[in-house]
Inverse folding.
């Protein structure tokens, strides 16, 4: 069989996590998909997939080969587009991931602008508060908040976020000011577990890092709920700057302990292929770098 056909079929099986799903995606019969994978494994002399009656898993060798196949198939698509005179147009399907609130507030506008600029592309947005494995889960571009571990992925820093302690003006008027981290012991604390999973908040006092133990009156699994409670004047919370920026701007929340903020956390746009990235990926990365870096609202 044609090698490109075999590669495409293998990538579809990996992405769909099964032969039946790949068959539907490629509009092929399940036996045809099974034969293609068997021929590919025989040609390579290595097992790419492990099969049971219930699940199909990619082997270590198969995961590496799948990543190489995706890059090769993208290059083939690029070559075809260039030969047909459509190289300048991004096309195909793009999968983007980001944290929930950052995705809704900052990445969704990038996606909208991207779709308007490139009508031949469709996009899936995975806005989830977990670190998505870009390679294993077939994601094209990830927007990550935090320091990145060493990896083969390519990344551009597009901004920084701060952890801010804030409360409503009416809460502070009723309970008194918070002028140093030690004052938190006398206040009602709202803990958003997505950002502050423990009861220890770190601050910087001069050149020294200090940890303050707080006792939350309420712990919530969503940042939206923590914001709503703080705006209602229930207590003090600590969240990322981009999450509370609209409420600070309109006066619903007020930042406290600003001189003691810990160092900012970087925001990166991460993708796999580097200079070999497909046109659809390069176009999105370029637009995300431009829009996120020039956004006037604080990240």
């Amino acid at each position: 069989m044609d090698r490109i056909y075999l590669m495409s079929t293998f990538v579809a099986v990996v992405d769909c996590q099964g032969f039946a799903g790949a068959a539907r995606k490629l509009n092929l019969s399940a036996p045809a998909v099974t034969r293609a994978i068997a021929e590919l494994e025989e040609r390579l002399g290595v097992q790419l997939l492990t099969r049971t009656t219930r699940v199909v898993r990619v082997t270590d060798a198969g995961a590496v080969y799948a990543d190489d196949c995706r890059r090769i198939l993208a290059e083939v698509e690029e070559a075809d587009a260039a030969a047909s005179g459509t190289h300048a147009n991004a096309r195909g399907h793009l999968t983007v991931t980001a944290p929930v609130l950052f995705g809704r507030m900052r990445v969704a506008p990038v996606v909208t602008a991207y779709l308007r600029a490139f009508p031949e592309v469709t996009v899936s947005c995975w806005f989830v508060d977990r670190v998505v494995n870009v390679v294993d889960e077939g994601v094209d571009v990830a927007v990550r908040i935090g320091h990145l571990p060493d990896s083969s992925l390519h990344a551009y820093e597009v901004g920084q976020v701060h952890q801010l302690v804030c409360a409503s003006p009416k809460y502070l008027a009723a309970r008194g000011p918070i002028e140093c981290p030690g004052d938190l012991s006398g206040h009602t604390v709202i803990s958003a577990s997505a950002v502050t999973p423990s009861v220890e908040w770190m601050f910087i006092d001069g050149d020294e890092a200090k940890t303050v133990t707080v006792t939350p009156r309420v712990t919530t699994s969503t940042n939206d709920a923590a914001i709503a409670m703080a705006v209602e004047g229930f207590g003090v919370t600590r969240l990322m700057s981009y999450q509370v920026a609209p409420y600070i701007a309109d006066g619903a929340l007020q930042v406290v302990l600003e001189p003691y903020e810990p160092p900012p956390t970087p925001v990166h746009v991460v993708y796999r292929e580097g200079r070999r990235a497909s046109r659809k990926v390069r176009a999105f990365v370029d637009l995300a770098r431009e829009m996120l870096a020039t956004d006037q609202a604080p990240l």
Remarks:
- The chain has a mean pLDDT of 87.
- The first helix runs from residue 3 to 16.
- Residues 261 and 279 are 40 Å apart (CA to CA).
- The chain is about 40% helix and 25% strand.
